Structure formats: C-alpha cells, structure tokens
C-alpha cells in the first residue's frame, strides 16, 4: 500500500497528514484557513489521492508557519508513500485552465529538489491565505518530497491562478506517481 501517516509538532504548529496515493480523491481537510482547505481539497480530488490534513498553528501571528509546515509534512508524506519509487512513471505534466487563468506544471520525482515558479499575484491575500505563501508552500513540498518542479501561471484573478496551479500540480503528480512498470526509471538504478 502506497500510503503514509506523518506528524510534525513544533512550538508554532501541530500538523498531522494521512496520504494514500492509490485512493479515490476523498479528503478531510482542516487548517483554519478556508482558501487553503479549498486548495488542498482540490489537490486531493484531482490527484485521486486520499488526503487527511489536521493542521493547527499560530494563526494569530499570520498564516506563514501553518502553510509552510503543512507543505513540509505533505512533502514528507509524498516521499514516504512513494517508497522506493519502483515502477513509477517518474515524470508528469499538466496544463490546467480556469476561466482566464492557465497553469502549467512539469515535474520529476527524481530525488533532487528544485522549484522554478513563474507566478505573479496582484492581491496580498485570497481570503485569509497570503498569496506570497504559494511559492513557499511549493518550495516546502518539493524540498521534502525530493521533486524537481517547473510551474507557471498567468491570468487576472488570483483565486483562479492559485487554484489552477494546485490542480495542475495534482494532475502532474498523479501522472508521475502512477505505476507503469517494475524497475527504477534511472540509469543510476535509484531515485
């Protein structure tokens, strides 16, 4: 079973995530940030991964610690659920439109962390979610899941741009994580 249960508790946050890669896209999400809940629910639905997130943090300060630590734990859960990565497609990509917005994501579950993100937001927040945290969230995921990800998004509405980006990430990761063989897709023999 390709699944993981990861917890992280600090003086600033208490995060618990359960992830099942071969799921149905069902989710139970509670972060205290409505728009972030919406994005994680969309990620689960469109990836087909079952996802449970129970995240509490010092939201009285701001949303930074909670979003960052959720990205860290989700990245760790992805890495754990992928096990030794035997048989996975390894590479995945997706282009997702949402009204006037268009997001593109290409990624490699190759064991090296790197994020290239071309995204500009006009509003400082969508709901209680700081738009500057989009980059930081994805940086935290790729670092801890050891994923190389190139992403871009354009459009006029920040809600649409962020949602298209989360959905494109979901589809790209689903395609990269699918089992399509038995061996490791690397000339090194390991990922």
How would you portray this structure in words?
- The chain is an alpha+beta fold.
- The chain has one domain: Imidazole glycerol phosphate dehydratase, domain 1 (Ribosomal Protein S5, domain 2, 2-Layer Sandwich).
- Helices cover 34% and strands 31% of the residues.
- The protein contains 4 helices and 10 strands.
- The strands form 3 sheets. The chain has a 4-stranded mixed sheet with strand order 1-2-4-3, with helices on one face. A 4-stranded mixed sheet has the order 5-6-10-7, covered by helices on one side. Strands 8-9 form a two-stranded antiparallel ribbon.
- The longest helix is centred in the last third of the chain and has 20 residues.
- The two termini are 19 Å apart.
- The relative contact order is 0.20.
- The mean pLDDT is 97.
């Amino acid at each position: 079973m390709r699944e993981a249960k990861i917890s992280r508790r600090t003086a600033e946050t208490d995060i618990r995530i359960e992830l099942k890669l071969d799921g149905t896209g069902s989710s139970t999400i509670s972060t205290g940030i409505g728009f972030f809940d919406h994005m994680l629910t969309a990620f689960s639905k469109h990836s087909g991964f079952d996802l449970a997130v129970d995240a509490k943090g010092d939201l009285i300060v701001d949303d930074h610690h909670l979003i960052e630590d959720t990205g860290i734990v989700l990245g760790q859960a992805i890495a754990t659920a992928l096990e030794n990565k035997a048989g996975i497609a390894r590479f995945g990509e997706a282009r997702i439109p949402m009204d006037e917005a268009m997001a593109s994501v290409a990624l490699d579950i190759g064991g090296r962390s790197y994020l290239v993100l071309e995204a500009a937001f006009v509003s400082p927040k969508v709901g209680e979610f700081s738009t500057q945290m989009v980059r930081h969230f994805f940086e935290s995921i790729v670092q801890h899941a050891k994923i190389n990800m190139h992403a871009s998004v354009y459009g006029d509405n920040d809600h649409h741009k962020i949602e298209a980006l989360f959905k494109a990430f979901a589809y790209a990761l689903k395609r990269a994580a699918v089992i399509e063989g038995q061996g490791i897709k690397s000339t090194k023999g390991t990922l």
